[in-house]
Amino acid sequence: MPLTLCKPAAMLPWLVFTTLLALSGCGGGGSDNTDTGAVTTDTTPNSFSFAAQVNTPLDQWVESATITVSGINAAATISVSNGEYAINGGNYSSNSGTVNNGNTVRLRHRSASNNGSTTTSTLTVGGVSASFSSTTLAATGGTVDAQVSIQFPLGQAKTERSSITVSGNAISTNPLLNISINGVEATLSSSSAVAPNQVGIATSPPEYQLSWSAEVPLPANTDTTLAVAVTDTAGNSDAQAASVSVSRKFAPSTFSFDALSNRLYALVENNELVSIDLASNEYQLLSTLQGADRPVIAADIGKVFYATALENTVTLYSTDVTTGVVNQVHSFTVPLAEQQFINLADIVYVEATQTVFFMLAYPANERANYLHELYSFALDSNTLALVSSDDKGSGPRLETNRLAWVGDKLLGFTWERDGLISIDVTNGNRSLVVSDIPGSNMALTPGETDTVVYVAGFVGVFRVDLATATIDTVSAEAAQDIYVTAQIQNLAFDGQQNRLLLSDSMAGLLLAVDLATGTRSKILSSGVGDGRYLLMPQFLALDPDANIAYVLDTNNNASQALLAVDLISANRSFVTDSANLPADNASDLLLDKARNRLIAIYANQIVAVDLSTSAVSLLKQRGGDSGINVDSFGGGVIDSVNNTLLISSFATDNTLVELDLITNQHQLVSITPEDANNAVSGIVDITVNSAADKVYLLSQSKGLVYQMDRATATAQVIVSSCLNAAQQNMLDLNYTTPLHIIHDARSDNLLVSANAVLEVDLSDNSCTAHGNNGDAHIDLAITGSNQLLTTQQNKLVQYDRYNNQSVVISR
Fold first, then answer.
1. CB contact at 8 A, 489 and 505
2. Around Cβ 486, how many Cβ atoms within 10 Å?
3. Strand order in the sheet with 499-504
4. Which of 109, 199, 385, 721 is the most buried (most CB within 10 A)?
């Protein structure tokens, strides 16, 4: 039979058969059994490994090199311990899963937070394991190569808050691992795009930038240094990378002096009753008071007495000076007429009879309608009695707000005669003792004998001899330069040092007045910085390059002052003698830096103050042949691009004044209202965006913000409402008084001072009211580091509108 050869499908061309078998067919001899060629499942991969890494950053994600899974022909299990894995560049996971032949796998783990420490992760695939380790770099023990700056608060600050959010920036050559302020870890914002999960933004050359903030507690009645500590990933550190001083120590608003212990028992601004050692100026907290005023020390029984007058109830309290325990001594009610209220005018303690006397005043619209009542409370019998009033006792009107026990007499002021009256505590009769004491006096105290009284008021401090009715000047207000007084609350005689102690609540000062020379010196202060303190700093001009704020203080209770405030030290110095400034109502203060001068705008005139010579010169006046024909001058703005001064006129509708700062020539700019039926009126202040050729006008009387095109002088309303958290419109005069407006070129927004800080986003003219109704910001300016400064009554403030907090940076 013929020979048939069958070629297996897998037979290769080079294979030579030497023996041929005679077969009857190619089907395996006709058998029914077939070879299927099945393959055994293999999920055990070839071995793999990861290279260890050294000198890795602290507390950062560290990734291994990738490995490729091989030697398996089916899906194999994969798991990791102390780390995460990613397959084929996908997301990282720590959960068990499966992997196929040819897949790539990468490991990662978080490096150690300590220098020189090793972290190990183990990857297991189909029962085959390998470890990946990283070791952080060794500690160098050096100092962080970083620039750390505190943006809030500035270098010197004072606050009533029990905590403060400190914020700032940092730039370093290594990624920063940690920033803390007095042990409080800061929140670090922004992360590097170049170095993922590392804090900072990497630039070239390598530099990491970030911002940080932390809320730090502040102890009361003391000064606190806030120190910024920094650590980088190389193990370098700096415990004093930056620092700032923040104080919660306030001068007494009212006090009682114990000559034997040389201590004050005083109320400070945070409503705390403290004992102050005048030798060391150390404060001891006794108790926290609510609604109290004018503490008086009863040294013989170790108690401080004070009273509260709430609604129609008067309550007398005592605080033990050793334990601080507060006791309610007595409470009583008085009848009140409609819309009438009670003021506690003064309180004194008489040791000889252990009696507390206190004066109640019932204010009215007219001083002649004021009512006063003098009460006594005998501690030994717990007896309350009305001593004197308009209806009890005879003699001059009982209208005093201050009392003093001198010898065996209770004395008080009489405004009718600018003198002193004596009150007979047995029958309430009043008699004139001394008249014609100069000035409106606000405080009095017994002197060195039973016939001597010291009084203090708006025109100075005087010694009054009751026996001879002689009045001698101790310290005249007109002779003062730095320590003028405005609202004197207390006066006390310190015989051991031959001086008077005087508190001024407006200035936040406790002064010593030398009885031999009349010289005044500071003992305690609620302020920040040295120099003439701020009483009513209304107008603000800022030189951000020099870190100087110029302040025009126009308080009515003391002489006008134009001051330069160093924003680093908070110290204040006179720019010019106040006698050289106009006796006029001020409207604005501007820095004309190109000509090194300040421009002060008053209602009737505009003056320039040369910063090199302090010389004051008249630029323009209102009215007259060469003057400007408007009713009065309002706020202004310097357009440095066009070398012009733009000035508003509050009482002249549809009118601005443009003054050429080079030629001193002026012209009136007629405003065209977009709404012809509504005049642009009551413009209290203006600002300019020279780049966009726009002027922004703040109408105080209408509560509106206008935008005026310089080319056409057409003005349109862009803001009519700015709601605060209580949904009150902070442009509405029922809630606030808008005063000043500035343009922030960096963010292209407007800022308006009122009973809040109003911020207008010019991209959509939306308005945000920052802060609380009642903050009463007057003027405002932006520093070179984009910090907001505002003036408030008796202080210059740095205001953080994002965290709604403020600190006093000069007072």
1. yes
2. 20
3. 488-494, 499-504, 509-514, 520-525
4. 199
Distance from CA of residue 350 to its chain's centroid? 43
Tell me the pairing of strands 263-267 and 156-158: unpaired
Report the C-alpha gap between 497 and 261 in whole angstroms. Answer: 13
Average of per-residue pLDDT across 10-31: 35
Specify whether the CB–CB gap between 666 and 658 falls below 8 A: yes
- Strand runs (DSSP E) across 654-693, as ranges? 655-660, 666-670, 672-673, 683-689
The pLDDT assigned to 190 comes to 65
pLDDT per residue over 249-290, tens digit each?
899 989 999 999 999 999 987 688 999 999 999 999 999 887
Please report the pLDDT score of residue 175 as a whole number. Answer: 76
Q: Which of 345, 219, 217, 348 is nearest to 272 (CA)?
A: 219
- Beta bridge pairs of residue 135: 54, 118
**Which residues pair with residue 93 across a beta bridge?**
85
* pLDDT band of 141, cuts 50, 70, 90: low
Rounded to whole angstroms, how far apart are CA atoms 750 and 743? 5
Indicate if the pLDDT at residue 78 is higher than 80: yes
798 within 8 A of 809, measured Cβ to Cβ: yes
Beta-ladder partners of 670: 655
pLDDT the model gives residue 273: 92
Tokens at 803, concatenated: 């965290």
Which tokens in the block code for residue 226? 């806030």
Helix, strand, coil percentages in the chain from 3-state DSSP, rounded to 5? 0, 50, 45
In angstroms, rounded to a whole number, what is the distance separating the alpha carbons of residues 111 and 133? 9
Q: Rg of the chain over CA atoms, in angstroms?
A: 40
Read off the tokens for 769: 């009211």
- The pair of structure tokens assigned to 343 is 């003021």
Bridge-based pairing state of the strands 128-136 and 207-217: unpaired
Which ranges constitute the DSSP H helices of 553-593? none
Dist CA 463 CA 476 (whole Å): 11
CA dihedral 290, 294, 295, 296 (to 10 degrees): -160
Determine the 3-state secondary structure of 650 from DSSP. coil
β-strands 223-232, 644-648: how paired? unpaired
Please answer whether residues 443 and 456 qualify as being in contact, where contact means their C-beta atoms are separated by less than 8 angstroms.
yes
Structure confidence by residue, pLDDT tens digits, 375-385: 999 999 999 99
d(CA 656, CA 37): 101
pLDDT at 367: 58
Phi, psi (degrees; rounded to nearest 5) at 22? -80, 115
If one counts every other C-beta atom within 10 angstroms of the C-beta of residue 746, the result is 7
Query: Are the beta carbons of 288 and 271 closer than 8 angstroms?
Result: yes
